[in-house]
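Quick check before the chapter quiz. The format below is the same one you will see on the exam, so make sure you can read both the input and the output lines.
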Amino acid sequence: MSDLRQSFAQTENLIVAPGRLLLDDGPRSGMAVLLRGGRFAEIGAAAALRARHPDFPVVALPEHLMMPGFIDTHTHLTQSLGKSLVFGEPSEIFRRIWVPLESSLNERMVYLSSKLAALEWLRGGFTTAVDAGTRSAGHIDQLVLAARETGLWLVVAQICNDLGGAVVVPERAEILRLAEAHLAAYQGDPLIRASLAVSIPEVASDGMLRDISAMAAAADVTFQTHVNEHLVAVERSLIANGCRPLEHLARIGALGPQTLIAHSTLVTPSELNLLRDTGTAVAYNPIASVWKGNAVAPALQMQALGIRFGLGTDGTRADGFRLMDAAETLQRSNYGLASGDSSCGGGWLWLDAATRMAADASGLTAVTGRIAEGLAADFLLVDLDRPKFTPSHDLCWELVRYGNRDQIDAVFTNGRLRMVRGWPVGWDARALLGEIRELAGPAIAAAPIHRIHPTADSVIAVRAS
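Here is the expected output.
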């Protein structure tokens, strides 16, 4: 651990020469990158790069893969204190668990939840997270503080509901004022990007949905909302609007390249065409489908149609490798087996969907998602000197099906070392965990959460007695 920290004590004009470098055209040997100013300044053959810059220090890592950091296109940092409370619960858990929990958190608990989530995400190889907005009252600054202290890139949303679904629902003029202020607050920020959100379409008026989507487009940021995730929500929209949620957003003009739809699991062929024709992006959240959803997004069909999408966790499990595995597995089990599709897009698709494609869906193409000159130096060092990667015949597939976060030796954002073998650099994670263990129980007990099922622990205890 100390060797890595010493090697990367300074990353200004530093040449890194890994055994394999994951570029747009796949894993390459004999390549190196020059880090400067928190960015990938130059990429080329290692010998040539060293020759051009003979005075620059070189970190040689022959047993490591250097790859882009994962990007989570959809998560909820202020739900990390609840985590397993939703296990085994029926759909629309946000109504009975997440809204009551988030709404009850004070400023300190919002900070602790966000920092715990950021710690977990960096441990899992995520260098960027797109947060869909907290329902706690006025504590977005605590999400931002947690991201700054950990080094996690954060796209953070201001929720703009005007019909409910949050602890405080301001008047329309105040919502628009807060949205404008949120957009202005993070212009040019080195780690934070602003976003606007409506939790689900039914908690905002048509005018608000249209205006917030247009405001996001004008500011070149994402407009986020959860759509076509649960059957009951689709049916409510049919009753209220005479059409399905995605169709409703299209009718009022809220879709477009700025829009990032979470889930889109229950989509018709015509709705897929709406996504394609409007340039709307989708967060494909495979683990959320398994744990708490009603269906699986047809990601392979989306790819075939040219619909923009990236992978998201929805706050489920912070391991970018297992997220890719779940993404491919669900496409294979839900669509590939029935059609005889043995590859289901291939390992390269899921690597792209977790990095480059995720950056595009999140509005971050010009910032991160690839190892390319001029982009932020957000990358992972993955130890290939492991049984799972020995021998290696097809590294892209091996990363998707064999990789997991304990193989990540280091995580970097903006060229800075943030994590070494699962523990952060520069701050005390164990102190954070200790405070959370002390405070989380009372905070959960005070929240008006309504679970349908008892915990598994309590059932086992009753059976044992």
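If your answer matched, good. The longest strand covers residues 58-68.
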